[in-house]
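During the second half of the funding period, the structural biology subgroup turned its attention to how the target accommodates small molecules. The most pressing case was iron/sulfur cluster, which had performed well in the primary screen but for which no bound structure existed. We therefore specified the complex as follows and requested a full 3D prediction, including the ligand pose.
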Amino acid sequence: MANPSIQNDLRKTRASPGTPLYVHLPFCAAKCHYCDFFSVAAEGHDRGALLEALLEEARRFAPREPRTVFLGGGTPSLLEAPELVRVLEELERICGWRAAAGEVTVECNPESLDLAKARLLRDLGVNRLSIGFQSLDPATLQLFGRVHDVEMSFAAFEAARTAGFENLNLDLIYAVPGQELEQWERDLTRIVALKPEHLSAYNLTFEEETLFAKWLEEGRLKPLPEERELAFFWRTRERLAEAGLRAYEISNFSRTGRECAHNLNYWHNGEYLGIGPSAVSKVGDQRLANVKGIQGYARRIAEHPDALVSSEEPGALTRLGETWWLGLRLARGLSQAQARERARFPEGEHDPMPDVAKTLLGQGLLEEFEGRLRLSLAGLPLADYVARQFLAAAG
Ligand code: SF4
């Protein structure tokens, strides 16, 4: 339901030039059992109407010359060639992203990325693809409800390389119920042999309102014990480091210079503009969220100045707590001065975070490095606990 209190002109103008742009394309071949992103099985939906609504939202709010562009979802690669041309060419007319954006990513799934589509995306100006491999184990892919097999994943990677992509990310999920460490290590060996520039490898989580959460409740799925999850976490870091893929964020690994610029901006608590159903934005100090729902979103865009369902403007202390929470996910960490600057924390106001940091340093969960604070080896697996200390101090 739309919140009537924010229906009127909250966002009056386009985001400032250069602001990173996220576009949410919510269609997938089928819904994966663990996924809590806003996405729907594509069949039976009027994709054209949704795309036109999304482009209309871009006309109203998208920044000129975004530094980065990220088409996520959902499965953007599921769009047919004319749909991809329409979206990317019209966004070019609206934003002029081609000359401005250093990094332009499109999320893809193996079942919808062949050589023709990879070439089309390359020709349209996309320079980075993120491919959802998730697992190299056929039984795990089935458990996940994925609609592709392992061979299709390798074929999609090959297609992307043949089309000329030199910046590829692969998404993976580990610590799956029943998974053996040896099997995961074998998967990692096959993955690093592909020499991707970037990997996102996440510990499986059971998100609310997913089939996985239901199966967990019913006892059909049993999560791995914590110490086994930790063994996966450390082995992943070691194996990828050996292959030259450095953990620059808790769950993200890259070759030097291939960190995801778009996501770095999130971890720096920077501004960004999201368009599409369920997309969120950070504009100035405002946090804005669009309505979910395909028809609801299109209707809102047709009848209202925006598609917002919520907006909030957190105070300076909350912004500071969030900045620490996000910044400590990065291996390089952050300094007290950087945190205050990113949070736009007013000069002269009392900052409680140095005291929090002092306690965590004393507990060995943080360490000082080149003038910044970062998670220590002991603190890495306790990142959520550390983050909570900063958030709690923010009140
Ligand atoms: S393909 Fe991705 S976005 Fe779509 S349902 Fe699966 S995990 Fe979610």
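Two results from this model are relevant to the next phase. Residues 1-9 have pLDDT under 50 and may be disordered. The longest strand covers residues 128-134.
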